[in-house]
Structures are given as structure tokens and as C-alpha cells.
Amino acid sequence: MKKFFSTIRNIFAIEELRTRILNTIWFLIIFRLGSFVVLPGVDSSKLQDASGIFGFIDIFLGGAFSRASIFALGIMPYISASIVLQLLTVAVPYFQKLQKEGESGRKKITQITRVLTIAITLAQSGAYLSTTIPAEAIGLDPFLFKIASMIILTAGTIFCMWLGEKITDKGIGNGISMLIMIGIIARLPKDLFFEISTKGMSGALLTIIEIIALFFVVMGVVMLTQATRRIPVQYAKQVIGNKVYGGQRQYIPLKVNSSGVMPIIFAQSLMFLPALISGLWSDSSDIANYIGSTFSNIFSWQYNLVFGIMIILFTFFYTAITVNPNQIADDMKRNGGFIPGVKPGKQTSEFIDNILSKITLPGSIFLAIVAVIPAFATMAGVTQGFAQFYGGTSLLIMVGVILDTLQQIESYLLMRHYEGMMKSGKIKGRSQNAAVA
């Protein structure tokens, strides 16, 4: 405990770090306050709680979705636009060229992402207003209400995007990820209280067991996020003037889960389609009704079986487009590095690709298991709201964001010659890349 308080004191002793932490808290408070501001003309007492797929979306928005808030769409359209641009950089030569242009190319991609975010928000806001807000809750002319609300929702998303960028620039951690995490955590006290009140005093022991099980699940996710396979790289010695450079051994840390949470996001995006498509024939087909009801329930075994398979496939797909063994091998060869016992060039690329395939398979299976744990938690008697914290996107995002933030704080402490947050080892966040000089 003394070590803990000493670390807290050291953190706030660094003026820049203290300012960044206070800025982050202030921006997050603004974001949470905005999520309670209801759209003009909406009677919040007549709104219904989000359920099914909409309830799942509401988890990431901290309840703003079901409250018809000005931040009802939050940062989600920006994430969708970022995913689209990320895929375009793989498939379209123009975006590949922009990515290789350095800082100027990144600025152009950022501008395109912002414009695409506005377009996606306008489309999603129209669908949101039509499907989630009942007519009896609207106190204005329906046409004027829809136009005004689409503008307000788009402005709300742009403001959230601005907040995220400000947190990244003037705060601590990744701003966009931080906004998502705070929305998820905001629901934890409510869901935990509901879980405890549902079990009552007679189920106090069961509640304690559930919390202990949640602790071990979180530890497992931390291990999945941190696990790496280190490939040794030896650099040849170079004599420049009177000094000798190189000759040291470094490592390429290939992550077991190098794709992060993206496979789950991709899979969930496609899992919305069966319920939406089946709704078109729900009046005339029993099969369509069955598919719609089955895949609208995110806790059904059919949903989770398909969901798990898709996560495994998307893990391989996303790893293939984000980790390029050929580029890693070329960079090593250019800088005089080589893997002991492996020839530089093509054989090095094949060696890295082979290792990457071997570690991606168990990583993808573990990721799929984490994603479907909430369904097993509900079968064990955990309420649906609290079960969402046992796995899936929400838990992976929280663990990843917290590790990234702790990594930044630790780097500040070590840079100012303070003792780190851990006695041994280092905190490794998602942003750590391969150590290829």
C-alpha cells in the first residue's frame, strides 16, 4: 500500500503528467454530461430501454443511445469511417500511396476520415430516429424534428470526435478509445448493483463467486493482450569513423493477438445482417422469423457459434493485412539485421510468416472464447447486463485502453527518473510495435 501511495505522489509531482491527467478527466466529464442532454422535442419519459442488438450498441455509448441524447451515436460513426479507410489502404493504390507519404499523407487520410464520418453519421442518424424513437415521444412536427435532430446528432458526433482528439493531444491515452471505455465503465455500477439486488442476501455467496470469476477472466484477457512471441534479431557491426555501431541483439515481438479487438468488431458488424434481412420477409416466412429471432438474441448458441467462427476467420484476415512479413524482412535486411540461422530476404519472410500463422491460430481461438463468454455467463445465472463485462468487445477495449494509459504514465515516470509502476518488467500496451531498427 505504501508503494501505491508513493507512485500516486510521484505521478502528481510531474507537472506535465498532472496537467494531462486533469485535462483527460475534464474532457471525460464533458462527454458524460453531454450524454444526458436529450434531443429537443423528445419526451424522455416515453422512451423505451434499448434491447437486443440496440441494447448491445447502447453499452458502448454509456446509455446515450437509449436516452435519445445529442451524443446518441457517439464516436461510433468515426470508428466505422476509420475501419473503411483502413481497408481502403489495403485495396486501393491511392490510399496506399497516401499512407507511404508520411505526415502529409496521414493528414490527408485524417481529413478524408472526418468527411466520411459526417456522411456516415447523417445516414445512421436518419435510421436511428426512424427505428428507436417512438412517435408518441416526439413533441414537434415529425419532418422538422427529423431534419433538426439529424443535424444535432451529426454535430454531437463531430464534437465527440473533437473531444477524442483533444484527449490524445492534451490528455493521457488514446482519446477515441478513452471515450468508448468511459461509456462502458459508466454502466458497470448500475449493472453490478442490479446483479447484487437480484441475487439478494441469499445469493451473496454466488455474487462473490461471480466477481472472483470475473477477476480471473480479466487476468486471462490481460495475458491474451500482452502475450508475444519474441524472434531474436542480430545486427551486424558497422565501423563509422572511429566508432563501432551495431552488433547488438534485439527482438521482434510478434503479438499472439496482433489484431486486437478488430476481428470482434468486424464479426459483430456482419452479425447484424441476418436479423435485418430476415425482417424484410418476416410477415411471409416462418424461416425468416426463426432466423430473425435467433440472431437478434446475442446470447443464443446459434448466434455465438457463428460469431466465434467469424472471429477466427477475421483474426487471420486482419493479421494478414496489418502485419507484413515481407516488409519486416526488407527493413531488417536494409539495416543489416538477420535472424540467426535464417538467410535474409525471402527465407526470413517465410520464417516470420510461419511463426505468425502458428501463434495466430491459438490467439484467434482464445479471442473467440473471450467473445462468447457472456453467453455462458448468462447460462450460469448472471444477469445479461453484468454478463457483458465477462468478455467480448467491452472487456477487450477496457483492458487495452487501461494498459495503454498505464504504459504512457509509466514512461513519464521513468523519463523523470522516478520508480516505475511495477517493480519488475514493463507494462506493454497495444501501441508497442516490433523493435526493428
TrEMBL record:
Task: List the coiled-coil residues.
Answer: none
Q: How does it sit in the membrane?
A: Multi-pass membrane protein
Q: In terms of domain of life, where is this protein from?
A: Bacteria
Alphabetic keyword roster = Cell membrane, Membrane, Protein transport, Translocation, Transmembrane, Transmembrane helix, Transport
Please report which protein family the annotation says this sequence is part of: Belongs to the SecY/SEC61-alpha family.
Complexes and interactors? Component of the Sec protein translocase complex. Heterotrimer consisting of SecY, SecE and SecG subunits. The heterotrimers can form oligomers, although 1 heterotrimer is thought to be able to translocate proteins. Interacts with the ribosome. Interacts with SecDF, and other proteins may be involved. Interacts with SecA.
Q: What is this protein called?
A: Protein translocase subunit SecY
User: Which gene name does the record give?
Assistant: secY
